[in-house]
Amino acid sequence: MSSSKLYFVLLLLINISLIVNVQSSRVQSRLEDCSIGVYQVDKPKPLPDGTPVFLVEINNQCDWKCKISHIHINCGNFSSLTPVDPHIFRRLSYDNCLVNDGKPLAYGASLTFTYASRIRYSLPVSQATCPH
Questions:
Q1: What pTM did the predictor assign?
Q2: Which residues 6+ apart lie within 8 Å of 23 measured at CB?
Q3: From which residue to which does the signal peptide run (predicted)?
């Protein structure tokens, strides 16, 4: 288990009361369901100026154990005071963020990133491609 995944699991177990939002988005493709979980928690330590820091995990929960690609998230005018790896998550335009450079996310795989913002963004999945 990677250290970021372990940190995320420990954070959930130890600080369950800090969960501010757990949302799961389900995207319907032509022939089957794709299930993509988007989970967000407050990190216990804000930036020195008090700006909250959020940990986000996006995972593939596809019922058919498939790879899901071209995952797009409704993200408003997403921005972060700390850098977010653009290969993991980046805003393409208003309310359109791309996950994993559009590349397939394997069944059971997760991506995590943190962002710092005075605004906690709602991050529902808007579209994805679910090959069969």
A1: 0.77
A2: 38, 39, 40, 122, 123, 124
A3: 1-24
Least confident of 7-11, 59-63, 128-132: 7-11
Dihedral sign (CA 27, 33, 35, 36): negative
Per the structure, the count of domains in the chain is 1
Q: What is the residue whose two structure tokens read 């949302």?
A: 23
Residue with tokens 């954070």: 11
Continuous H helices in the chain? 3-14
What are the tens digits of pLDDT across the range 46-92?
999 999 999 999 999 887 788 999 999 999 999 999 999 999 999 99
Domain of 73 in residue numbering reads as 3-129
Task: List CB contacts of 79: < 8 A, sequence separation 6 or more.
Answer: 91, 117
3 has pLDDT over 80? no
Which regions of 21-105 does DSSP assign to beta strands (E)? 21-28, 33-42, 53-60, 69-73, 89-93, 96-99
